Amino acid sequence: MLRIAVTGSPGTGKSTVVAKVAEKLASQPGFKIGGIRTAEIRKGGHREGFSIQDLVTGETGTLSHIKGNGHRLGKYRINMEDLERIGVNAIRNSLFCDLVIIDEIGPMELISGAFVAAVEEVLESNKPILAVLHHSSRHPLARRIRKEFEVLAVDTKNRDELPEKIFNRFASQLL
Length: 175
Ligand SMILES: Nc1ncnc2c1ncn2[C@@H]1O[C@H](COP(=O)(O)OP(=O)(O)OP(=O)(O)O)[C@@H](O)[C@H]1O
Hints:
Blueprint: E1 3-7, H1 14-26, E2 33-43, E3 46-54, E4 60-65, E5 72-73, E6 76-78, H2 80-93, E7 99-105, H3 107-110, H4 113-124, E8 129-133, H5 140-148, E9 150-153, H6 162-174
Parallel strand pairs: 1-8, 1-9, 2-7, 7-8
Antiparallel strand pairs: 2-3, 3-4, 4-6, 5-6
Helix pairs in contact: 1-6, 2-4
Bound molecules: adenosine-5'-triphosphate (ATP).
Adenosine-5'-triphosphate (ATP) is lined by residues 8, 10-16, 159-160.
């Protein structure tokens, strides 16, 4: 079962690579992609936090924000309610899809035991997975993914060609 994790320094284009692969696969008739994407919340040219979205329902919430009163991680406060209501549900429901995308598995997401458990459940399934893995996480789940997945490092030199390569790998197994 094909499982690929893309990793790399901040801002190298990991999410863009995954989004391009997802877009190409999603355009195949009947192909269903589940899981999550996270994105920056910007205001006035500054990053104020991150959003989290269910790839099936489109439901979007706040993963973290500079304002809030949840668990602090750097300058951000984790919104555990949205992380678990949207993120954990999206990952559980992705078990009914053809491909699971988890963008991303990093320190903010790994704060939630329910998130970790949901990802572990997907790992125990037979589902193909494409994940963005935070480059420096030492969490046991991150270590497990580094061992079990094919890990591809994204950099500015390979980020334009990687989407096609990753698409072809999944396409040859799944389409
Ligand atoms: N192939 C590309 N060519 C040009 N610009 C790109 C490319 N890929 C990504 N970018 C730009 O680089 C920036 C970072 O991209 P992206 O969010 O995909 O990176 P990331 O590695 O996922 O970031 P983070 O570390 O914050 O998760 C964005 O502004 C995006 O538009």
